[in-house]
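User: Structure with zinc ion, tokens only please.
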Amino acid sequence: MLKIGATGWIEKEKPRPGPLDAIVAPLALAPCTSDIHTVYAGALGDRHNLILGHEAVGRVVEVGSEVRDFKPGDRVVVPAITPEWRTQDIQQGIPHQHSESLLSGWKFSNTKDGVFAEFFHVNDADMNLAALPDRITLEQACMMPDMMTTGFHGAELADVQFGAVVAVIGIGPVGLMAVAASALRGAGRIFAVGSRPKCVELALGYGATDIINYKNGDIVRQVVDLNRGKGVDHVIVAGGPENVLSQAVSLARPGGSIGNINYFGEGAMLEIPRLDWGCGMAHKSIRGGLCPGGRGRMERMIALVAHGRVDPGKLITHKFQGLEGVEAGLALMKDKPAEVIKPLALI
Ligand code: NAD
Ligand code: ZN
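Assistant:
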């Protein structure tokens, strides 16, 4: 990111590790919707000559003197969120994503250079990196740092229960992983709200039982009609404009829960529909969160893939070679033709 609205290539000094850190060279990189928000919408404010990217799998090239579990040559999954784990905030129960201040766990392409580079720096390597087993492909692994952990977090935030009825609003890559996570948590029925044929096909493959096209009218009406006139137990919000949150409140039954992982980029306020909120008395909960990061989380994502529970590699619709491929992938994410779910650059 050269400045808001402009990308290009720049030369920077190779980063150096502190005692607890690692330097990693990428093996696979994935551009993200968030990179587009950062550059073209200025979502994080003005940034100059900031290296973009937070979705990477790589090979360790150098480690600090205190790093115990990783050495040069190791293949690693690098989470998008890399907190400082030795903080008072975490010990006080503040989620690790915010361990020093709001969203502070999100460092790559936010408060420091990101991963779209020949080498990048990872803080607290022993706590943030996860070893990548041979049997997992780079395609699968590169969906773990953000897409998989975020979509799965949607199901956690909504607290999806065994046998429950779930609606997932937005079935881009994050929403598709929320569908897969809901199925893994034992949801009985999963309404996937989306329109693009490729996303619909994958949603059905990941466990959706019903497809709702938001272009065919009010999604609340469509879902409630199919659900015996009732709201759903859990709603996961993973795409769409500001009004999807109010749709989610209307969609949830009394006592239902809403997990939001969507990024809302416009306006000062989000609306809650008063009557569907039971005038404040409907016991509907809303929880929103940033994707979990760190080593333990990535090891869990690895376990799910290694044992065949889910294949996030299917999200990749376009593959490119080399760092130049990042540029091509980013351009695809910006224009978002209907057949694009997730591009990948193999380095
Ligand atoms: P995406 O743009 O690929 O997917 C969003 C999907 O929602 C698209 O397919 C779009 O067509 C669809 N959509 C648009 N309007 C809709 C509507 N009214 N109803 C239903 N669907 C609608 O993005 P993504 O990469 O899947 O990410 C989804 C969201 O999650 C984005 O807002 C992204 O910024 C955010 N995100 C959050 C985190 C986090 O940590 N919480 C991490 C990654 C991404
Ligand atoms: Zn991302």
